[in-house]
Amino acid sequence: MGVSRIKSSDWEKTVVRDTVSIRKVASILNETTLGIVLVQGENRELLGVVVDGDIRRGLLTGIDLDSGVSLVMRINPVIARNGISNDEIEILMRKEGVVQIPIVNDANKLEGLVIRDWNRQPPVRKNLFLVMAGGLGERLRPLTEITPKPMLLVHGKPILEHILQNAILEGFRNFVISTGYLGSVIKEYFGDGSQFGISIIYIEETKKLGTAGAISLLQNWPDDPIVITNGDILTNVRYASMLDFHLEENGVATMGTAIHESKIEFGVVDVEGTVVQRITEKPILEFLINAGVYVLSPEVRSFLNTNEYCDMPTLFTQLISSGLRVVAFPFHESWSDIGTRSDLEKISRGLANQTIGAKVQEL
């Protein structure tokens, strides 16, 4: 396996005080490649650690991103003392099932960080990564009259190229693109994927099959979970983290969810009988919405009829009704569904979400 001892100038960027917000910790996780944030007290003593899944599970319980990090941090993390050898750390990682271990001294003060040696790059994922790119893009006309929606440009590159490059950075190499409307444009641009160092195969919808039905066209359903995204979603989410979450939660299907805020333009009145209890002026309500990114295990195949229409909400409802374990993966990263010309213009100007704009321009 091998391990790497991270130089102090790098691991110290992941250290925060126990007074910071979850939002700040999420930002650090997104900006660094170490996959962990170290939480210390006033005297530099290690109080706990936070990894990606800790934040997402917290969000599912209703914890707000602006809450304190103590609500999601692991207070008894696996640690190692100064002087431990790399061989001993490897044994400890295997035993505890972790890929990062903080190093502390006898006073429990932070002295270092050791991570599994992936040369700071994520491991290659053998899982299929499927992009649903067959939609008509009717709300984006006339832009989509000769160009399929996934091929519209954002910062000089097609939306689909941004999606693929984000997935490549997460270690995915085996891609499937479901095409339909103007699919030849997509095939001509990406070919077999070799120019990007990946493999791409295509499945073609000859009729509208919905957001799930096209999956039934896969010739050989793999033995491992498939990561799926709609072809009009731009997000900084780490697809590999979502896949790992799916495996940890032992679900048959995982749905990515984003937070959507809806402002009520009136004062909301709560009453009991005829008695007014309180008035909340123009409250903002938060909902978890379907973010258009999924992970499906092989068991799902039996719920799809080949070449028959099925959308993802229907598929997930069937899985739930059958008593199967379906889980949510809440996004704390930036996310945007490019459904209209206004959405496209905002993303292109970097106004819809500054984080997306920055990430997209990096690619």
* End-to-end CA span: 29 Å
Uncertain spans: 351-363
| Second rung of CATH, namely the architecture of the largest domain | Alpha-Beta Complex
User: Approximately what portion of the residues adopt beta-strand conformation?
Assistant: 25-35%
Compute the number of helices: 11
Give the mean pLDDT: 83
Strand order of the largest sheet: 12-11-8-13-18-15-19
CATH class value of the largest domain: Alpha Beta
The helix fraction, in percent, is 25-40%
- What is the CA-atom radius of gyration, in angstroms? 23 Å
CATH topology value of the largest domain: Spore Coat Polysaccharide Biosynthesis Protein SpsA, Chain A
CATH superfamily of the largest domain, by name, is Spore Coat Polysaccharide Biosynthesis Protein SpsA, Chain A
Number of domains: 2
Shape: globular
How many beta-strand segments? 20
Could you say which structural class the secondary elements and strand pairing correspond to? alpha/beta
User: What's the story with the biggest beta sheet?
Assistant: 7 strands, mixed
